[in-house]
Design goal:
Elements lengths: L1 H18 L5 H5 L7 H11 L7 E4 L2 H6 L2 H10 L6 E3 L7 H14 L4 E6 L11 H4 L2 H4 L10 H20 L33 H9 L1 H10 L2 H16 L3 E6 L3 H4 L4 H8 L4 E2 L3 H4 L13 H19 L7
Parallel strand pairs: 1-2, 1-3, 3-4, 4-5
Helix pairs in contact: 3-6, 5-16, 6-12, 10-11
């Protein structure tokens, strides 16, 4: 019994030491690859690029592929509003990553407005890249018991912390590769959704086909606590720093033109909700696939986004 207790205490101490190991963020960013490099690029834009960020878009690849930040900025300029706009969207969903990026944004820039993407539901899990870049406070920033994949995320975090501790003993192994620099983050998709092939269905559509829309919405609501807790923290953090927050409804094609007030009610209590024109998002020709606008769709969205952002920057409350 004593041996078991001693082993358990020793293991706990090791886990605590790994959890709170002060690993440099530059070293953590250097472990990213493939789609994860987008996170490093976004951080580089916030931390290293001297250009200000007045308006920031934070979200998934829906934002990364669907928001022409240069186009919005130039349209605002033609209207006499000088504001630097940055698309900080990253691949995959995970509100803990959005909270992480919001914290870093406020640490390096002084935005006037942050627009956070929302879609038809709040996923009950964290971002797969967060364990690679997170500190202990980032990992535990939300009510982690409601994150359905937290045990897996925490084990990956511990592995990365161990890698960092070993790299400290061997500095040459921790050399960070420089990330490319960019000012505008829009990554347009130059393809059309092939209408000659059977239409690919998203997971949400398949779930709806099996259990119906009402049951799907009820299931989403039951598993939304993790995302909503993070959204609340994001909104509170921005407001405490005198930064306006707004929400952009930009879900998959099947749900984009059917926004219902009940689905948006939670976000509407925290800030204005922007809903793109139904005619734009209902037109399949504006989509690259079931989840992402193509270049034409993103360009058509620019006038709406520019007008909405102008109203918000000027303090106008317009129903959209």
């Amino acid at each position: 019994m004593k041996h078991s207790l001693g082993f358990a205490c020793g293991l706990l101490l090791v886990l605590l030491a790994l959890t709170f190991w002060p690993r440099p963020l530059a070293q953590r960013l250097a472990t990213l690859h493939a789609d994860g490099l987008r996170v490093a690029d976004v951080y580089q834009r916030m931390a290293s690029d001297p250009s200000p960020i007045d308006v920031a878009f934070i979200g998934t690849s829906h934002v990364m592929n669907g928001i022409d930040d240069r186009g919005v900025e130039e349209t605002l300029a033609r209207a006499g509003i000088r504001a630097r706009v940055a698309n900080l969207g990253t691949t995959w969903m995970g509100r803990d990553m959005h909270l992480f990026l919001t914290r870093k944004l406020l640490a390096f820039k002084k935005p006037q407005l942050v627009v956070v993407e929302i879609n038809e539901h709040e996923p009950p899990y964290g971002h797969p890249m967060l364990p690679y870049v997170a500190s202990a406070s980032d990992m535990f920033c939300c009510r982690f018991l409601t994150d359905m994949n937290f045990p897996k995320m925490y084990m990956l975090f511990l592995k990365e912390q161990l890698y960092g501790a070993l790299s400290t003993a061997r500095p040459s192994a921790a050399a960070a590769s420089p990330s490319r620099s960019w000012t505008y983050g829009w990554s347009p998709l130059d393809r059309d959704w092939d209408g000659n092939m059977p239409r690919e269905r998203s997971l949400g559509e398949r779930i709806q086909g099996l259990i119906g829309s009402k049951a799907r919405e009820a299931a989403y609501e039951l598993t939304s606590d993790f995302g909503k807790q993070a959204i609340q923290q994001i909104a509170d953090l921005l407001k405490s720093n005198n930064v306006r927050v707004a929400f952009l409804y930009l879900p998959e094609y099947a749900f984009a033109s059917g926004a219902e007030s009940e689905n948006l009610q939670f976000y509407g209590k925290l800030g204005p909700v922007l809903v793109p024109p139904a005619a734009l998002v209902a037109d399949r020709r504006n989509w690259a696939d079931f989840a992402h606008l193509n270049r034409d769709g993103a360009l058509q969205l620019v006038p709406y986004m520019s007008s909405a952002i102008a109203d918000l920057l000027l303090g106008k409350e317009a129903e959209r």
